[in-house]
């Protein structure tokens, strides 16, 4: 998503742009089946224990769940992540992310209007608070959102149920925070639509193409070595080619760390795995109207047209492999707690799409957006849990910088220079 958004903004500014993507189409990795939340305010720390490290033997599911014990430098990454998730640092990071989400939402809306894009989206979101203690903990992020200019509302249990009438009565609900405005949008669908618009502007897409080497040139420009993975119609073996560009923008998610390490750019990126379930609505009366976020478990349930998407979890230390049973079970449990009749679960195999995705995460929770210290190499990556909410704004701000214009939003907190990159 971040790459497509960047390509679109740069094409709109009149640059000649080529996107190289190792997959056969767009949004096949982290942007494939994410939670779809874009509501300003959704990224607030609604539960106090979401910022904790959960050791491998812990089964609570809250916080950053470690799948194994850390090794070597991983301890230092986790220590930095923990430090930035506490006290004043947490508040200032949240304020920064929040500004980006708002800015990005405006840009996304403008793009949607400009091209009259039709994608699954909805308004309004509830943060569900199961107990008095959770409602008390929510007061801090609530006040922070008010200070940032939002108007979130604290609702009683009855008021929340009036907005989302299908919420199960069996699960205790103390109250909810209502976040207004555009709240849900389908990331993959938007990426597919935006790709078509970028193409109309002249942007070229080369799929099944791995960027395998990046070489900044002494006399300006950057050489890319490209490995083509689709077999040639003549049956010829795939081969490498090289192309030179004035500049490159790296939007390779977590793979960027391996790509840039040979250049001496050591990105402190870690993979944080999340899960999602998507299933067709069984009975619209039993499905969510828009979106809810279970504050205790950090799990969202969103309506995407004729489907429901449940997403959440943050696992560290299991970079590859199939979706985790425990991670999926937490999602099924949250769905049956809040909307037990919303989707048909017992249908033919494959009727529920179970997915795991990797969030490229930096220890301070902010992405890398801007010029690296190497000429011609720009970064737009590491947006962690909120990359969809930030993509359109991040792309606009980066394109402004490349153009030599001051962006409408301050990029300082996202600068690659904070890590010496
Ligand atoms: C379960 C889950 C729920 C989430 N929910 C939300 C949410 O509700 N709201 C929100 O805002 N965010 C959410 N996110 C986060 C969001 O999905 C990501 O931050 C965002 O999709 C990242 O986009 P990206 O373009 O940076 O990465 P990706 O979508 O992973 O794109 C990177 C692309 O680079 C390509 N690539 C990598 N290396 C190479 C190479 N060498 N050569 C060629 N191509 C290469 C990959 O194939 C890939 O297509 C969620 C994430 C997960 C996992």
Count of alpha and pi helical runs: 9
Total number of beta strands: 18
Under CATH, the topology of the largest domain is which?
D-Amino Acid Oxidase, Chain A, domain 2
> What number is the mean pLDDT?
94
Share in β-strands: 25-35%
Q: What name goes with the CATH superfamily of the largest domain? A: D-Amino Acid Oxidase, subunit A, domain 2
Tally of domains: 2
Instruction: Summarize the biggest pleated sheet.
Output: 10 strands, mixed
Low-confidence stretches: none
Structural class: alpha/beta
Write the H/E string, N to C: HEEEHHEHEHEHEEEEEHEEEEHEEEH
Q: List each distinct ligand once.
A: flavin-adenine dinucleotide
Per the principal axes of the C-alpha atoms, what is the gross shape?
Answer: globular
User: Radius of gyration, Cα only, in angstroms?
Assistant: 21 Å
Which CATH architecture of the largest domain would you pick?
2-Layer Sandwich
Please identify the top-level CATH class of the largest domain.
Answer: Alpha Beta
Give the CA-CA distance, first to last residue: 23 Å
The residue fraction in helices comes out at 25-40%
């Amino acid at each position: 998503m971040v790459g497509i958004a960047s390509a679109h903004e740069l094409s709109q500014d009149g640059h000649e742009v080529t996107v190289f993507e190792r997959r056969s189409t767009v949004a096949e990795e982290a942007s494939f089946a994410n939670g779809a939340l874009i509501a300003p305010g959704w990224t607030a720390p609604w539960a106090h224990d979401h910022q904790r490290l959960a050791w491998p033997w812990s089964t609570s599911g809250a916080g950053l769940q470690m799948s194994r014990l850390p090794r070597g430098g991983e301890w230092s990454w986790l220590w930095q992540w923990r430090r930035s998730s506490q006290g004043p640092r947490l508040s200032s990071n949240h304020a920064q992310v929040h500004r980006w989400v708002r800015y990005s939402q405006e840009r996304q809306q403008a793009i949607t209007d400009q091209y009259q894009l039709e994608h699954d989206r909805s308004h309004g979101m509830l943060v569900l608070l199961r107990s008095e203690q959770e409602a008390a903990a929510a007061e801090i992020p609530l006040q922070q959102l008010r200070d940032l200019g939002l108007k979130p509302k604290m609702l009683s249990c009855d008021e929340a149920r009036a907005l989302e009438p299908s919420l199960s009565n069996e699960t205790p609900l103390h109250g909810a925070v209502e976040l207004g405005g555009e709240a849900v949008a389908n990331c993959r669908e938007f990426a597919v639509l935006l790709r078509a618009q970028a193409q109309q502007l002249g942007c070229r897409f080369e799929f099944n193409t791995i960027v395998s080497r990046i070489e900044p040139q002494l006399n300006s420009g950057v050489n890319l070595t490209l490995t083509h993975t689709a077999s040639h119609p003549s049956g010829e073996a795939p081969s490498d080619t090289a192309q030179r560009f004035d500049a490159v923008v790296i939007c390779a998610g977590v793979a960027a760390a391996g790509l840039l390490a040979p250049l001496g750019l050591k990105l402190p990126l870690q993979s944080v795995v999340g899960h999602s379930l998507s299933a067709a609505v069984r009975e619209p009366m039993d499905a969510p109207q828009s979106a809810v976020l279970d504050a205790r478990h950090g799990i969202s349930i969103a309506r995407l047209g004729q489907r429901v998407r449940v997403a959440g979890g943050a696992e560290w230390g299991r970079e590859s492999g199939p979706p985790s049973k425990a991670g999926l079970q937490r999602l099924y449990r949250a769905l049956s707690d809040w909307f037990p009749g919303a989707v048909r679960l017992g249908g033919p195999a494959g009727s529920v799409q179970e997915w795991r995705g990797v969030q490229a995460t930096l220890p301070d929770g902010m992405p890398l957006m801007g010029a690296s210290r190497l000429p011609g190499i720009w970064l737009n990556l590491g947006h962690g849990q909120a990359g969809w909410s930030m993509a359109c704004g991040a792309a606009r701000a980066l394109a402004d910088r490349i153009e030599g214009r001051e962006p409408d939003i301050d990029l300082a907190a996202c600068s690659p220079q904070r890590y010496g990159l």
